[in-house]
Amino acid sequence: QLKNLLQLLAEHTDAEKIHVVSCSAGGRVVSRALHQLALEHRDLDKDELRKYFRIGTVIFAAADVEEDRFLARLEDIANLCEQTVVTVSDADEVLDNARTLMRGESRVGSTQAEHAEQAFIEKHDLLNVSIVDVSRHKELRGFDIEGHHYWYRHPWMSSDVIFLLKHGAPPHERALSRSEENGIWYFAPDYPDAVR
Fold first, then answer.
1. Given Cys at both, which of 29, 110, 121, 193 links 183, Cβ 3.0 to 4.6 Å?
2. What is the per-residue pLDDT across 62-98, written as a single tens digit (0 to 9) for each?
3. What DSSP state is assigned to residue 90?
């Protein structure tokens, strides 16, 4: 149904940009819908896809999606939208429990999946896909951004989501700091001053 809704919005509205925010298991719905859209429009290249569907930013916050399933869909997702952002945390007990109880691969929103995601992004040269690791360098700033709902409860992360939806700016323009690994970003201790 989400795939049908996105098709409907593309065909029957004059929306300039259509943003999609998913959290937790909603990431399963969003990743599948976007993957199906791309599969159904294999005749279009990525520029034509983006022009037709007008999908701006897609956010996978604390996503409860199996790593292998998500990576199988990620290239199609990246072709459809202007920017894809995946948030990861090492302090999300809900995702840890999901993996234990429901089995399967590491969840996309956990730092356990981060290396595979980063390697996939680099291998496929997905320049419009970024990972925001909210746990990275927590020892420098003196606290962790934790829990399953950090993406809207923590002021730093919710600020980043607002900037994403209002401006569609890339990570460096949202005052995030680049990590040593390509495509991974984090909140440095000076984030509040930098974002101002």
1. 121
2. 999 999 999 999 999 999 999 999 999 999 989 988 8
3. S
What's the CA gap between 164 and 162, in Å, rounded?
5
Dihedral angle sign, alpha carbons of residues 74, 76, 78, 84? negative
**pLDDT for residue 99:** 75
For 40-68, give the DSSP string.
Answer: HTTTS-HHHHHHHH-EEEEEEES---BHH
User: What is the mean predicted confidence (pLDDT) over 128-140?
Assistant: 96
Question: β-strand 129-133 against 177-178: which pairing, if any?
Answer: unpaired
Q: What is the mean pLDDT of the chain?
A: 94
pLDDT in the model for residue 71: 97
**Eight-class DSSP state of 83:** E
HEC per residue, 128-179? CEEEEECCCCHHHHCCCCCCCCHHHHCHHHHHHHHHHHHHCCCHHHHCCEEC
pTM of the model: 0.95
Tokens representing residue 192 in the block:
């509040």
In this structure, the number of other CB atoms found within 10 A of the CB of residue 148 comes to 21
